[in-house]
Amino acid sequence: MGISATTDDSDITTVTVDYPPVNAIPSRGWFELADVITAAGRDPATHVVILCAEGRGFNAGVDIKEMQVTTGYDALIDANRGCAAAFAAVYDCAVPVVVAVNGFCVGGGVGLVGNADVVVASEGAYFGLPEVDRGALGAATHLARLVPQHMMRTLYYTARNVDARTLEHFGSVYRVVPRAELDSAAREVAAAIAAKDPRVIRCAKEAINGIDPVDVKTSYRLEQGYTFELNLAGVSDAHRDEFARSGEALTNESRRNGKRSGTGVH
Fold first, then answer.
1. Does the keyword field hold Lipid metabolism (predicted)?
2. CA gap 237, 225 in Å, rounded
């Protein structure tokens, strides 16, 4: 459980997230993910990074349960800084990052995907930002890299999801494949990149970031500033408490029905 990395003889490093049941990552996990991705990019043996996840879905964002059991704002600050570090690590990674999205990708997951270089997804995968329903803001910066501006605003205000096929239509998802073919699809595009001269690819990554019209790190931190304001006003606390209560009720109902369930997905 946690974050792991393996490098194969194809010069591809696969970074895997595994935080059951829904890959809601605790604060320390975001920092660890940032460190692992950064280290992979610095390793001359790595030509491409694949970011994937085990379990039911790619990512359910931050671990809200961690905030609920932590007094003060330490958990919130750590989560915000951890997310900023992980998102930046994907963006600043010295080599291209290919993300393989299975199932749900919400909250912080959108931050990771929005900063990646190539996105492949499984059929039925969906993406969304439930932040406004949690009394928080963030990752609109990254959602705007996946959908057109007015679609981003609509999805953000309504906290609705968008499916992988729609993103494929927009061109932000490279391929949508059956779940059983997701890993091979990610490896196929990663291998095509890894076969290129790594000196050229590393320069290409830096050059593309240099001409990016949006400073994703500064804009994301601006969003987080409003989240702190909402927390100071007590708005976020009320919404997180309600989410925790509804999640617990859903879990208890699923248990009564003999099914497994987890919180973190809206």
1. yes
2. 16
**By three-state DSSP, how is residue 159 classified?**
coil
Do 57 and 23 meet the contact criterion of CB atoms below 8 Å apart?
A: yes
Number of domains in the chain: 1
d(C-alpha 94, C-alpha 200), whole Å: 11
In a domain, 244, yes or no: yes
Q: Determine contact, residues 122/102, Cβ cutoff 8 Å.
A: yes
266 is a domain residue? no
In a domain, 194, yes or no: no
Domain of 229, CATH number, reads 3.90.226.10
Are 63 and 118 contacting, i.e. CB atoms less than 8 angstroms apart? no
pLDDT in tens, 2-51: 999 999 888 999 999 999 999 999 999 999 999 999 999 999 999 999 99
* Three-state DSSP class for residue 154: helix
Q: How far apart (Å, rounded) are the C-alpha atoms in residues 94 and 205?
A: 7
- Which residues constitute the domain of residue 165? 2-184+205-256
d(CA 261, CA 154): 29
Question: What would the 3-class secondary structure string for 235-247 be?
Answer: HHHHHHHHHHHHH
Q: What is the pTM of this model?
A: 0.90
Q: Classify residue 192: in a domain, yes or no.
A: no
Looking up tokens 């959602």 gives 143
Nearest to 63 by CA among 108, 15, 110: 108
